[in-house]
Amino acid sequence: PTxxxxxxxxxxxxxxxxxxxxxxxxxxxxxxxxxxxxxxxRFKSKLxxxxxxxxxxxxxxxxxxxxxxxxxxxxxxxTSVKTAAxxxxxxxxxxxxxxxxxxxxxxxxxxSIYKDEKAVLARNKDAxxxxxxxxxxxxxxxxxxxxxxxxTRNAMRESGLDGEALMDETRGYPNxxxxxxxxxxxxxx
Length: 189
Known about the structure:
The protein is an all-alpha fold. The protein has a domain at 131-189. Helices cover 47% and strands 0% of the residues. It contains seven helices and no strands. It has helices at residues 29-48, 54-65, 89-97, 109-128, 131-142, 152-158, 163-171. The protein starts with 28 loop residues before the first helix and ends in an 18-residue tail after the last helix. Residues 151-189 are annotated as: Disordered.
């Protein structure tokens, strides 16, 4: 029978096993024994003087803080002697050869910048002192901002306000809110 006659029988392509077995070097038993003995001798000091456990560390720590002090004397033990550095003639000559560093002197323009800023601030104060500017500022400050962090500043502003007064304001009833928060019942409503 051919493939057309018997479709249930499918031909599988022949595959080849690609495993490669690398022979391992056979270690003689005597070498294994010697390696184990050497490891045990290296570890022997750790067994004789084991690492302290948590309880011992906690108990010893207050004493560790006092390790520089001996007896009743509160002065620290001086273990090292600092030698005085002798001046080097070569370094001294190099320092004399370099020019003296100029100290920073404030720029005279700085004072004029402050005067300009004061003039700009005075102009801004004059512009915002009008009734229309005050109305716009109160209106903008009273409404919650429309941005990604919608609840940050608005929640901080409303956290100190009375909840019932806020509800009365949304309904348009008289309330005890400050003037900047009265969007419906305030002076500029």
